[in-house]
Amino acid sequence: MIFIANWKMFGGLNSLNSINPVIKFLKIFKNKKSVKIIYCPPTTLIYPMYKRLKNTPLMVGGQNCHENHKSGAFTGSINATMLKNVGASYVIIGHSENRRNGENNSLINQKIKSAIKSGLNVIFCIGETLGERKKKLTKKILNKQITSGLKKIKNKKKILISYEPVWAIGTGLIPKINELYETISFIKNKFKDYKVLYGGSVNPKNIKDLKTIEKLDGFLIGGASQNSKKFIDIIKKTYN
Ligand code: PGA
């Protein structure tokens, strides 16, 4: 199973110590061979985290990138090539917190292409808003987001699709398990051979229900991933 720790805009150099218990845990965990952990800290922490994780199986990723993989006059922006240069092997693209700020499907498609060109793997986020859900548009929205976001992209192995209902992110709410099962099945049947994760308020309590969806390949964890005890708990309980 894949566990992505999305730290969002949290953390300074001293936060790096919080990954030590996770490194220790993974060394002795009986299912360690099937666990993949990817930390996506703020950009300022990618290189120090990469150095810390260098001789461990844990990996590092960025949280977004510019659509142009070559250098350019884009003040304040960072591209995929730069992320790769400081040790990232993944990048999150299409997170709803960025879609909310104007990222549309076509820009996301450009970003994914540029990330792959730079040699990064992509954690591609999709998800419907509460309004869309209420109008029963979930499948239509997801289909559009995936079809447009992955337009002309062939390398399925480089992409993890992360289904994150917008209304579940940071709210403590998760979809009903049967509804989530149906949505994950829809994605997996329609977009074959992609790994699919779930994200949105994953915590040590609800993981027991979430893990019953056997089709899932892993979880994207925001808030709870900043606390190593909670993060370890989630991983342990996924296998219990
Ligand atoms: P959350 O964030 O776990 O805090 O809800 C999930 C996410 O970043 O998508």
Descriptive account of the structure:
The chain has 240 residues and is of the alpha/beta class. It has a single domain (2-239), classed as TIM Barrel, CATH 3.20.20. Helix content is 36%, strand content 16%. It contains 10 helices and 8 strands. It has an 8-stranded parallel barrel with strand order 1-2-3-4-5-6-7-8, surrounded by 4 helices. Helix 2 links the parallel strand 2 (36-40) and strand 3. The longest helix is centred in the last third of the chain and has 14 residues, at 177-190. The two termini are 13 Å apart. The model has no long low-confidence stretch (mean pLDDT 97).
Task: Supply the key terms.
240 residues, alpha/beta, TIM Barrel, eight-stranded parallel barrel, 10 helices, 8 strands, 16% strand, globular, binds 2-phosphoglycolic acid
